[in-house]
Amino acid sequence: MDKPSPAQVAAAAGRTIPDVIGPGLDVLFCGINPGLWSAAVGHHFARPGNRFWPALHRSGFTPHQLDPADSATLPEYRLGLTDLVARASARADEVTYEELVLGGKALVTKLETHRPTWLAVLGVGAYRWAFGTPAAMVGPQPEPLGETRVWVLPNPSGLNAHYTLDRLAEEFGRLRAAL
Question: In a 3-state reduction of DSSP, which class is residue 165?
Answer without folding.
Answer: helix
